[in-house]
Design brief:
Blueprint lengths: L1 H17 L3 H7 L1 H5 L3 H8 L9 H8 L4 E7 L2 E30 L4 E27 L2 E7 L3
Amino acid sequence: MRTLIRLLLGFSALVLAACSTVDSRIQENPGVFAKLDPATQAKIKQGIIELGFTTDMVYIALGRPDETREHVDAGGRETIWKYTTYYERYEGTVYTGYRRFVYWDKRVKAYRVYHEPVFRDVYSGHRETFIRVIFKDGRVTIIEQTKV
């Protein structure tokens, strides 16, 4: 029993350690954050990024990207950070079959069997990139964001 409790506590600590917030990322990079002016600090705390931000500033504001890519062409090398959102979309209700139930009918003193249709809601999972941040020479040059 104690082993199970220790295992659960260890797992909980691991899950909580994996959670990243703006405040925890500021604590990871206090020197970077302290060098910024108060207006930029306020934007980063709200998760707002702008052109010219460094990779460290974007990391503090938005966290670790879900996907990182490199793009190389005649103009040089670019690093692309993608942030993804996951959601479920309601697709409707579908018929799945019948449910049978039996009950005792007192009037005729016999069991009755009824069948009723069964329906269920259908959802489909979706993944969508909602922010793409492109860096050139360590600075943000392009921000692509999905408008809602």
